[in-house]
Structure formats: structure tokens, C-alpha cells
Write a structure and sequence with these properties.
Elements lengths: L7 E3 L12 H9 L4 E8 L5 E3 L20 H4 L13 H11 L2 E6 L6 H15 L8 E4 L2 H10 L5 E4 L7 H7 L4 E5 L5 H9 L4 E4 L4 H9 L4 E4 L2 H14 L4
Helix pairs in contact: 1-3, 3-4, 4-5
Length: about 250
């Protein structure tokens, strides 16, 4: 089952405080007290699911070329920032389970690899979280990838991911048997908030780094926010917890 969502999710592992999509970022988020992290997964040329956001290597590593055309032997020798290697999804998943973190795994296939990426992610997730009561949340912009997960690993919770949510989103949500709806924070309006509330669908928004925007979104009923500002998440969570009635 999917555990109750924390209000804040560290974007790409450690937000802006560590190289993105690295084990160092995940460890940092846990040390700071966050209970959930998000990261991106695509396939190497050898079919290994790895943590990286872009289809190309230049922005986040010292390598060059397309991730999907880079062999593991080359990929894992690269520097993803501050000496951190590009991690495998299995390593990141195992670390999240060890640290008790909810993992929001964004299936981010290179063009043409939607099915293969989803199958590889589902296989690793099932193996790493076998026997766990708290499963990862697998999200994607790719409806094909989410359909693969639904069919191959229906027990894994799925999140439907959009930049701007289309008017017919709920039909896709039902078809994919999704659990959460994700979208860009700047695209949220009253109509979407009302529809999500009416269907009792948790709405998750990215990427929120402004306290005022966070306050507005939470007040409107948004369930959780992705952030690069881990300091903001820690401070807001502490303030929120102080206002909750004692058990």
C-alpha cells in the first residue's frame, strides 16, 4: 500500500543542496528530516535503469551523448557532481527502503523506450520492496509507461503526471487505476482543485520553492509539494506540526 503522503517531497533527491539524482542527495534529504524523495529513471544502452533526468549527459555529468546510447561501463565512470556517480535505480531504491523514505520514482523514458523502461522499473521495484508495507509511487508523463506498470505490477501505486492537467484527466486516471495526480504548481486553478477534491484524488505539485506559493497551495487542498528548497520543507513541516492537536 502507499503510505500517507508527507507534505513535502525532495525534488530529484536532495533538491538544490546536492547533485541531482544521486545517492548523496537522497541521504541528505533523509538527514534533514524529509520523509519522501523524488527521482528520475531511464535506461542505459545496456538496459539498466539509472537515475538521470535528461536524455543526454552534458548538463548533469561530465559525459557526452545520449544516455540510451551509453554503456554501463562508461556511464558509471562519469561524475554526476561532487564526485558522485550516476546511481542505478536498484541502489537508490534500496537506499530509500533502508532509510524509510517514500520514493516517488518518475519513469522518464527516452523516446521510443517507454515500454522497456516501465518494465525494468517495475521489475526492480517489485524486487527491492518485496514484503514491504510501504511501496514506492511510480509516476510518469508517459501513459504507455503507466499502463505497463498497471498490467505488470498492479500492486505498485501509480501517479499520473502532467505539466498542465487536461480537462479529461479523470478518464485516464481511472483507466490507469492511478492513486495520485501530479502537475506544475503554476497550472493549478480552482477548477482543478475542486475536481480533485470531488474525486478524492491527492494532488501533488511541482516545483514549489516559494513559501507564499506553498501556503496558497496547501490552503487550496493540495496534498504534497515537490521542492528544491529543503530548508523551506523542514521549516514549514515544523510549523505545521506545532499547530496539530496532541494525540
Amino acid at each position: 500500500m502507499l503510505p500517507s503522503l508527507p507534505r513535502w517531497i525532495a525534488h530529484r533527491g536532495g533538491g538544490s543542496l546536492a547533485p541531482e539524482n544521486t545517492l548523496a542527495g537522497i541521504r541528505l534529504a533523509a538527514r534533514l528530516g524529509l520523509r519522501a524523495v523524488e527521482f528520475d529513471v531511464m535506461l542505459s544502452a545496456d538496459g539498466t535503469p539509472v537515475l538521470i533526468h535528461d536524455e543526454t549527459l552534458e548538463r548533469t555529468t561530465n559525459g557526452r551523448g545520449r544516455v540510451a546510447e551509453t554503456a554501463d561501463a562508461v556511464l558509471f565512470a562519469l561524475d554526476a557532481g561532487d564526485g558522485e556517480p550516476v546511481p542505478t535505480f536498484r541502489a537508490a531504491a534500496s537506499l530509500c527502503r533502508e532509510l524509510g523514505l517514500l520514493a516517488n520514482v518518475e519513469i522518464k523514458p527516452a523516446g521510443g523506450y517507454e515500454r522497456a523502461t516501465a518494465e525494468a522499473v517495475a521489475q526492480v521495484a517489485l524486487a527491492v520492496w518485496q514484503g514491504s508495507a510501504h511501496l514506492p509511487l511510480l509516476s510518469s508523463f508517459s501513459l504507455e509507461a503507466l499502463a505497463v506498470v498497471r498490467d505488470r505490477a498492479p500492486q505498485l501505486p501509480r501517479g499520473l503526471l502532467y505539466d498542465q492537467v487536461p480537462a479529461d484527466w479523470h478518464a485516464a486516471f481511472v483507466e490507469l487505476d492511478a492513486r495520485t495526480l501530479h502537475c506544475a504548481a503554476g497550472q493549478v486553478d480552482g477548477q482543478l482543485l475542486a475536481a480533485a477534491a470531488a474525486h478524492r484524488v491527492p494532488l501533488l505539485c511541482f516545483t514549489v520553492n516559494c513559501p507564499e506559493q506553498a501556503k496558497t497551495l496547501f490552503a487550496g487542498g493540495v496534498a504534497a509539494l515537490f521542492t528544491d528548497r529543503l530548508d523551506l520543507a523542514v521549516a514549514e513541516t515544523a510549523a505545521y506540526n506545532r499547530l496539530q492537536p496532541s494525540a
